[in-house]
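Have a think about this chain, tokens included, and walk me through the fold.
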Amino acid sequence: MRIAHFGHSCILVELHGVKVLFDPGTFAHGFEGITGLDAIAVTHQHPDHIDPNRIEALIEANPTARLLSDPQTAQRRSEGWEPVSAGQVLDIGELQITGGGGRHAVIHPDIPVIDNTVFQLGTAADPAQLVHPGDSLWVPPVPVGVLAIPAVAPWMRIWDTVDYLRAVNPRTAVPIHFGIIEPAAQGIYFGRLNEMAPAGTEFRAIQPEDQAQF
């Protein structure tokens, strides 16, 4: 598996010969020139996860890519997006994609809760080799290889993040969703997650526009 990080929650995952770009939002940079994508996956409708000013050009540059999203985003847009709900399974080549979760984390009781699809990538025998939860703390019911874990969010305390990391207990945790803080503050969150991760979990940060093999 290869993961490239383009800032905030935008990652490019290459797994089983399939390329999937997640959450190309307003805080992400460097994904604009990517071609050859097999799928573009959006967890939910917030602009930091789907940039309305750049998504159409990305789709035009990848005309054969499948467009996968939570049901509400698919309903709101007109480019042929496929809604992916919790429990739904689809295949792209040798890659299996399974939907999970279904709802965004609660920001405040006065703010309506929107759809949020957790994407699990893998195979039938190992369906969660990578998990991108978007803005959700949903725990997959199967072992997780790489968890793209939201590190910082308005709807989350570090307490919540640590408990989520421990509940999922992945082989590797890669932080995402930190485009809302100054780079100098990353160490506060990354350090805490690294030291409080469950035994056996590797915490591995990928800086924006860099990549790593797993």
About this structure: The two ends are 5 Å apart (CA to CA). The chain is about 15% helix and 30% strand.
